[in-house]
Amino acid sequence: MNVTRKGASNYLTTDLVSHTRKVCSLYKRLLRNIDFSEDDFYEARFQKLQLRAEFDKHKDIKDARVAKALLEKGEKHFEENGHPYYVSGIEIHPYSKDGIAYGRCEESPDYVMDYYHPLDKARYPYYFAKREEMKKEYLNLWKKKMG
Questions:
Q1: Can you give the pLDDT at residue 10?
Q2: What is the torsional sign of CA 50, 51, 53, 58?
């Protein structure tokens, strides 16, 4: 059931989350937590299999109170025993300082384009004409300000 009106922003969307979705979300978070905390692939795989067996053991429970209590117990276990980076919500994005792609693609400084060969500049005449015009404007502005 969507409680927002049509055309409202996504951050205003408030859907009712079913118990099944909460359990799936907990399962995925616990799997990712194992990835965060375990370095050895085979040990991580074994822990994931144990986790799956634990969830499968309780999948046929029909009593909503018992299922809700198990879900709360799992959430509490995740909060207490989760990896500190993962539980706190710190995500390491690929291009951030500690990410795997940090510094992979260095951006060239602007002055490198001044050293382009004239034949290369001839391929993009409008761009380089506009660039020269902007450089002159910038120099005039700098002279006026610092002058």
A1: 61
A2: positive
Q: Is 35 within 8 Å of 85 (Cβ atoms)?
A: no
> Whole-angstrom Cα distance, residue 46 to residue 28?
16
Instruction: Measure Cα distances from 82 to 33, 37, 101 in Å.
Output: 6, 8, 26
The pLDDT value given to residue 37? 85
Evaluate if residue 51 carries a pLDDT over 70: yes
Cα-based distances in Å from 53 to 32, 61, 81, 119? 16, 14, 19, 66
* Stated pTM of the model: 0.53
Amino acid present at 129: A
The dihedrals phi and psi of 14, each to the nearest 5 degrees, come to: -130, 95
- Average pLDDT value over all residues in the chain: 85
